[in-house]
Design a protein that fits this description.
It is a single chain. This protein is mostly helical. Helix content is 45%, strand content 6%. Helix 1 packs parallel to helix 4 and helix 5 packs antiparallel against helix 6.
Amino acid sequence: MEFVLRALLIHKKLLDPTKKTGFNSILLKRYNVPVKDLKTSEDILKGFLNITDDVTLTHMSENLVRCWDNYAIGLGLPEENPLKGLNLISFKKKFSTSSNQRIYLQYFYDFIDDLFKAYLEFRSKIREAYGECCPEEMEFPLHLTLGMAHEDTRLGKNNSYRNYFEPSPILNGQTKSVEEAAILLERLVAMVQGFMGEKLTATESIQITPNYLGSEPISLRSIPYYYDWKTINSKWYFKRSYNGNERYNLGYRAAKQVDAPEPVKNPLLYDIERYNAFRIEGHIGKNYRTALTDIIQQKNKFNLPFEVLALNAIDLSAILNGKEIKCHIEDLSSDYRVMITGIVCQLQQIMAYVGNLRPKRTTTPNLNLAAVNFTRDFYISKNLVDMQKAIKSDLLKNQPLSISNEDIIKNLALRDVEEGEKLADFVAKDVSNFIVNDKAFFDYIIKQPDLLLIFLQQLAEIVKYLLAYDLDKFDEEAYNKLWTPYSKTVASLIKEASNSENEEIKSYFSETNTGLLFKCANEKLFALKEEYLKRIEEYHLLPFSVSTSKNILVWNIKREFQKEELSFCYITELLIWC
């Protein structure tokens, strides 16, 4: 056959640049967006119904059916479509109309989300294997379009008015991709056939399984609790199945395999660093106290890096006792502890600098303090905890603090400095005695060195207060009674230092050194306390409140006929998935 190549110009109106694939465009909606007040557990469950609306389910059903119709034969699979007549709306009705299964509605949403991710993974692989997502037999007629006449379409983005070469899988070495695409298509069928959400009961045990979240493909994730293991396992992860290692897939029911390896039976005993999440399953429907106790026991037993919060959706004060209310603000308490450590670390550096100033007696003092090596990391983690325990123990016994200001400064900031006399040695002395006996040895720094002594004493008092009280006992007014006189002392020091002959001292005690007053840290501290009080007030006044704290597992509890049931498990971001 001979061809004569001729360049022809035609009007673009005669061409249809759109490629109709026959597939619906699908995106899943976010939960409770736009935000609405959720006042009962029924509101929470309806939220899952709203984001799995009939239009989305219909489009998903059609796409899954078309996947088999379009690709099964080319992938070496039977022509008969096992998904024919699929109607995901009927799946949803099993949950929405059954009072016993209604609390498992969230698992139906998870199932749809699984299908969506598995569909995207299949679509990506089939495009890799076929070159074109949905090739048409008349895609390449005798006339080939080369693009707009006034545009260069050889390089850059794909142009809808140009026919591109799409290699055959046989020619581009994609045989294995075809095999993987076939397994991924069979997995979509297995997920539909193996979904057992309507069969879930509260009698099964609670299990925690390492998992992946985020951009990782669903193949790498643990197999969820709501799938029949025998139906889904061999199709879940192509690479493992291809190598005959499907028994190494993790999942709620993985340990029940006859040939399950030890790391699959007890995955929490082994390395979990590569995972970024956990699946916590089997708790829905159980008495929340039983479930909470079980999960916390497993968390502690296996030293797992997450926190658990218990929330109710009806009557918080009647269901949750004081311990659980404290648990509810655990995220704030954790933030408070981290914030306090950060502030104390900042104050430690200030104390290390000022406390290490040396008296001028017979030798010239070393003012090059930047060269001094302080091992702050060790002492901030070790000595800080020890001092905090001692201070809280004294407060609990209602006795004077055994930790002095001198102890605070020397143990926290000056453990690794050069031996010899330094300003911190005078902290325990009365200021008037210092002025009479020792002031002259330090007036080379500033003319009123007693201000430095007062500065250190006030700084130590602030540190003691921060170590003494947890978030619930922290009082902004009491804290300001310590900070206000300290800030006035700082102002006096800045004024005095401006006349100092030592440039380093002049630079350190200046308006530009904002770290001396740590105002930003204080504002964050006050905001955290305000949020704490706000939550406490809301939970006393309202029958229901929703908390969406990052990286925290959130439960909402439903109380019916004097029977407390765990009715909802909603996950915020990244760390834990139920």
